[in-house]
Design goal:
elongated; 29-stranded mixed sheet; Rossmann fold; 960 residues; Leucine-rich repeat, LRR (right-handed beta-alpha superhelix); 5-stranded parallel sheet; 21% helix
Amino acid sequence: MKTEMAMPKRGISLCSFGILYLNSLIFTTTSYALKDCRVTRETEANCQTNSLKVFPKDIPARFTSIDLSHNNISKLNNRDLKNLPNLLRLDLKRNSISKIESGTFVCQISLEVLNLNRNWLSVLKEGMFDGLVHLTELHLTDNHIYVVAPASFKSLRKLTLLNLGHNKLRKLCHLTNILQNSPHLQTLNINSNKISKFHSWELSNTSTELVSLDLSLNHLKFFRVTADIFPNLTSLKLKDKGKRKNIVWEVSDTSYLSGVSKLDISGIHSSLHGILEILETFNSSLMYLKLNHFNKNLRVLVNFSCKMQLLTYLNLRNNCIICIRSDMLSLCTNLNKLDLGENKISDISENSFQSLWQLNILIIKSNRLTSVPHAVRKTRISELVLSFNNINVLGCDDFANMTRLRNLQLNDNRVLVLKDCVFKNLVNLKTLTLQNNNIYKLNSAFKENMPNLQVLDLSNNQLADLDVGEFKGLHSLEKLSLQGNKLKKIKKGTFSGLSKLKYLTLQSNKITEISNAILKDFEALKTLNLMSNHITYVSENPIDYPPFAELSQLDTLLISAQKGNHKNNLPQNFLQGLTNLSVLNIKNDKLTSLHPHIFNYTPNLNKLYLSSNDFTDLPDNLFSPIQKLKGLYISGINLRSLDFLLLANLTKLKSLQVRKNAFSVIREPVMLSLSALEYLDLQGNSFTCNCDNAWFLQWVKTNKQTQVFDAYNFECNYPPNLKGKKLLEIDIRSCTVDIGFICYISTACAVIMTIAVSFTHHFLQWHLVYAYYLMLAFLYNSKHKNKRAHQYDAFVSYNANDEGWVLGELLPKLEDEQGWTLCLHHRDFQPGKPIMENITDAIYGSRKTICVVSRDYLQSEWCSREIQVASFRLFDEQNDVLILVFLEDIPMQQLSPYYRMRRLLKRQTYLSWSRADAHPDLFWEKLRQALDTQEHPMGEHLRLTVEDGPPGERPDKSKV
């Protein structure tokens, strides 16, 4: 026992391992757009008749009920249902399933009902139903099952109903395996198998709570009960057909079946003695007995059965009874219900039911009676069923003294006319059905009688005219059906007296006009059906007497014209008075338009059916007065757009059906305006498969509120190269902006830029500074290029620490002795002007720039900016405008940040004061010559030195 219980637990744990993940992933990401199914309710899927060959994969995990009947599924594998842990009901009937892998249902621990009827299963293997620990109903009817493995039902501990009918089981031992593993089984149906022997000792080791056992059509040869194996059994069916050997019946103690109150031994083959022996077994407990298909000894069996004191229901259908005589049922004094239907009864003697004082229900339907039997008058029945006979005349005394009758069914006979006296004694009758006869005249049959009648069905007769006050005697009538007659015009006062009528059906007549005068008596009317009549209006102009002005309690109105009628228009005030109307159906009414104010009178309208009319357009404000609308059905009316819904403000609309219209694009604002929409049916429209529908396609696949019915079968109509292709298969990635991708690119660019700026600042700081000042020089040069005037011969760029040499050596020589005009920052810069602007003006306002270079000069920020601007002027003008004077030898590493200066020194004029000790006059002469030279192109200027290269690199022979 411990081993048997371990496996289900192990299977359940394997399933539980992924349930949290599935619930968080599938439940939140799966929309209502199912490829092979439609959602009938929030957690119910209907996948019928879709010709599916495999179990669908797109059903969300939240679903509790799935109907997959009428498909071609041939196999269930252990992966098919792993994502559906919440299932309560699964219907797989009428498929081709021949194999169910072990572990298929291991995750269905909540499943309660499993239907596998009409498949191709042949063997119920071990492990097939593992995991179904809460299953209560299992249906396996009409398969090919001939073997039930001993442990196949070990998980089904809570099973209460098992249906194994119409299979190929031969041995009772299969029941042993089932009953041992399902101790709470109450209903077991194994009818139409091949079990020929029933021996109780084969089930003696089982403990069962079985209440109902069906062994019908098994052609039992032996039925032996020698132990009390079914202490709770109340219903036993042993029905059989055909001529075979007599059944051997052995019940050693009648107390073993003393609880059986319902028995069906119809058609069982045995001798009269054998059948009586069977009946004797249940003599003390039987209340319901079915004796169908007995052509011999029926009278004896009936007399024997009626002696049973507790027998109250006797079913004698399909026994080929032709007539009923007074002695046939004389002993059935305790019967409460007698069913004689589906025989060939044409005659019943007057006293046939005289002794049945307890009889309450008498059924004689589907026989050959031509009139109401006189015998029924001597009963005290409350229900009489005479439908599907050949009764053509109802006489005044047919129901004489039947004051207790509550339900009378005379439908599907051949009655032509009624008489005013026919129902005179039925003062307590509540339901009368007369549909499907040939009645063409009522003859005041309902003017004075049946004050308690509540339901009257006269549909599908030949009534063409009704008299005034025809139903005035039916003060309690609540439901009246006159459907399918030939009524053309209803007179004023026809329905007078029907103050309690709630349901009136006048469908499929020839009524041309419905007026206020006709309907004013219906104070309590809830439903009025006027479908398929000839009611038409020419104009939308208001009418003087709106037909429904007095029907303030009406809840449902159905009205339409018959096929072939001319175009119809409803008056503006057609619905005036219907303040409580909830459902309005005017489909198939040949309407060409609707007045914008027609719904002003129906503020409580909940469902509106306008399908299959001839509208060319709908007014924008048509639905504005009906803000409570929850269902709108406007299929087949040639709509070219749904934009009219934008102004309707239908925030409570839950269901919208717009099949077979002419629009091809669904716009985003329309769908977003329907905030409560749960069901959308767009079948039969011609969709455009381009970016115009990109939003709609994405919405269908991802929205979690609205079910778009049959969305995966929508087809493209445009462009021509995509015609016929499935709409949801179109690739719309090129139509949509991927926000995630854009965010990714933006973030990546920001990161790269941050890294680049950091790298540049750390490694290329001086290059950036240099480029900045080059740009300033460029801007200045561009600004003053055409209006440049040289105010000075040279601008002297030096560090303050070298000011002594400049003022003591350079200035006296150049200005006092040689007569040059120099620009010095401490003397000639304009006070209050930005320093950089002073520097730029001085450099471009002088013919040349003399840079006095020293170690202090290289470390000075402002000196660096001066030489950078001067260098840009040099490269920009391509003239010899820069003179470099080195006051001291500078090592290479100190020039490295100024690699542009190093390159410049290899090509440009320079003088070295530290190497002019022996020939100072030559130094000043060279400097004078440099200042004196005109603006020659670079490379053509006067060389002041012999070798290139910065000081400290050149050989001694390069000294001045």
